[in-house]
Amino acid sequence: MKNKEEEQEKVSTEDKIKDAAKRVFQKKGFAATRTRDIAEEAGLNLSLLNYYFRSKEKLFELIVLETIFEFAKSLIIVLNDEDSSIIQKVEIVADRYIDFIKTQPDLPIFILSESRFNIGKVMENLPIKEFLSNSVLVRQLKEKAQRGEMREVNYVHFIMNVMGLIIFPFIAQPIIMGGTSMSSEEFIKMMEERKVLIPIWVEAMFKANKLQ
Predict the structure, then answer these.
(1) Contacts of 192 (CB under 8 A, 6+ apart)
(2) Residue 63: CB atoms within 10 Å
(3) How far is CA 116 from the centre of its chain?
(4) How many Cβ atoms are within 10 Å of 15's Cβ, its own excluded?
(5) pTM, two decimal places
(6) Which positions make up the DNA-binding region (predicted)?
(7) Could you report the per-residue pLDDT of 165-186, keeping only the tens digit for each?
């Protein structure tokens, strides 16, 4: 009984540290974060944090992997769904990822600021390229081009366009709100509207790129 309680306590403490580390890393970035900052955020002493996680680098790598996995796990299912069209996939992705980023508003800036120096090392070990290039979505794009319904383009362009429509407004949120006197509530309302608008824009892109 005691061993079970100790194991539960260990898991609880590790989760508390990871949650605190995620918040601090996303706010400060890797370089500016000290292990002491994470310990204070978690409400733990520094020696206990060092007991569970020996280095800031290892903790950062774990946080990045878990964040990317959380971001990508539903995407894998959506992009490989044989029964949904390209536009339906876009609808689902827009809906899910706008909701996801709303709960972690610092995430886009965190990924953008850390990608060149720290996240890139982690990404090298993830089979993202293989997954995307072999996905049902990419096959559907190729088939659409073969039927003359659009020009053949590198699938990366398509993915960049869709993800840009979803993510860029969150990155530019301070500029958008400052330049338009928009409140946080109005910004979120606008992002909710984009769940409907993004699939319409993507469909319009297909029509604009249709072979004559």
Answers:
(1) 98
(2) 23
(3) 16
(4) 11
(5) 0.76
(6) 34-53
(7) 999 999 999 999 998 999 999 9
Please state which architecture CATH assigns to domain 1-54. Answer: Orthogonal Bundle (1.10)
Helices (H), 55-183: 56-79, 86-103, 107-114, 120-123, 128-133, 136-146, 155-171, 173-180
Q: Can you give the residue ranges of every domain in the chain?
A: 1-54, 70-208
Q: Is 43 left (phi over 0), alpha (psi -120 to 50) or beta?
A: left
* Phi, psi values for residue 151, rounded to 5°: -75, 150
Asked if pLDDT for residue 211 goes beyond 90, the answer is no
* Residue 173 · residue 105 · CB < 8 Å: yes
Alpha carbon separation from 136 to 53, 186, 194 (Å, rounded): 39, 36, 24
Q: How much is the pLDDT for 83?
A: 95
Q: Assign 119 a pLDDT band (cuts: 50, 70, 90).
A: low
Vertex 177 angle, CA 28 and 109, to 5° = 25
